Amino acid sequence: MEHVLFDVEEGVATIKLNRPDKLNAFNRTMALEVQQCLDRCAAVHDIRAVLITGNGKGFSAGQDLAEIVDPNGPTMTQILSEHYNPIIRKIRELPKPVIAGVNGVAAGAGANIALCCDIVIAKQTASFIQAFSKIGLIPDSGGTFFLPRLIGWQKASALMMTGDKLPATDAEKLGMVYKVWPEEDYEAEIKKLMTTMAGMPTKALAMTKHALNYSLSNNYVTQLELEDKLQQEAALSYDYREGVDAFINKRTPEFKGE
Ligand code: T3D
User: Fold this and answer.
1) CATH number belonging to domain 202-248
2) 66 CB under 6 A from ligand 1?
């Protein structure tokens, strides 16, 4: 691939955005390559956790603005319907945990791709910018959906309208980010987290993700019914039997993701 580094090791797939000289801004090639990687993650049983991160000092500066002014570049319709919307849907619908490792600045669509992931981790020096208003656009890539649900309407509205840069430590306080690690610990901590996630009962995590997706539109009665249905399914899994047996026999469980 031209603009993405893709690697699979011990159940962990890493999708590394790779245009470091442009802070990993998305052009069409990179957007389509990210989709290919997500499809591969869905297809390969042995991949049990996915990390999306950036190469170099940025996570992603969002849409490549040079591509927009290129007369041979994609149209706005293509950019949303063929680039970002499929990426967001593939992340939300992937039946495996997807972790955003925000290693540096995440702006525009770059920020919102990170924010739709199941767990968002950031380096202490990273930052988030809803950069759209600065160029006369509205937040896309699910930003108007996920951000108010993560941090509340007022903070989301203000960040989107001002385009202010939010340091990772503030993002953590607001609930936009699960954990922030200092530069010196970041690589080791993220590796530890990814190893843990790849060793979890993947099927149960996939159903947790499914239930969370539906909780965004269900009422609580429908959600109780969905939990009931999914729990019956989880109770039939190998990992459920393994988890309970390991607990009873005071040993560490060995989950297979089945
Ligand atoms: O059609 C549509 O647009 C619809 C889709 C919209 C989705 C979106 O994502 S819209 C939002 C697009 N993104 C932005 O507006 C952010 C633009 N970038 C910035 O504001 C700043 O670069 C940052 C605040 C993110 C980082 O600032 P800084 O000072 O750390 O870095 P820099 O010097 O500005 O950037 C470093 C290089 O990356 C530089 O290249 P050069 O001059 O060294 O050759 C810069 O031009 C390039 N770069 C950064 N962001 C983009 C970019 N090149 C193209 N597109 C970018 N978005």
Assistant:
1) 1.10.12
2) yes
Q: Which residue, by CA, sits nearest to atom 46 of ligand 1?
A: 22
Task: State the helix-helix crossing angle for 28-43 and 85-93, rounded to 10 degrees.
Answer: 20
Q: Is 76 in the pocket of ligand 1 (CB under 6 A)?
A: yes
Asked whether 23 lines ligand 1 (CB < 6 A), one says yes
Query: Are 99 and 49 spatial neighbours (Cβ–Cβ below 8 Å)?
Result: yes
Superfamily of structural domain 4-198: 2-enoyl-CoA Hydratase; Chain A, domain 1 (3.90.226.10)
Closest to 111 in 3D by CA, of 54, 196, 161:
54
Strands 119-123, 98-102: pairing is parallel
pLDDT tens string 112-163: 999 999 999 999 999 999 999 999 999 999 999 999 999 999 999 999 999 9
**What does pTM read for this prediction?**
0.98
Helix (H, G, I), strand (E, B) or coil at 2: coil
181 lines ligand 1 (CB under 6 A): no
Burial of 129 (0-12, 13-18, 19+ CB in 10 A): buried
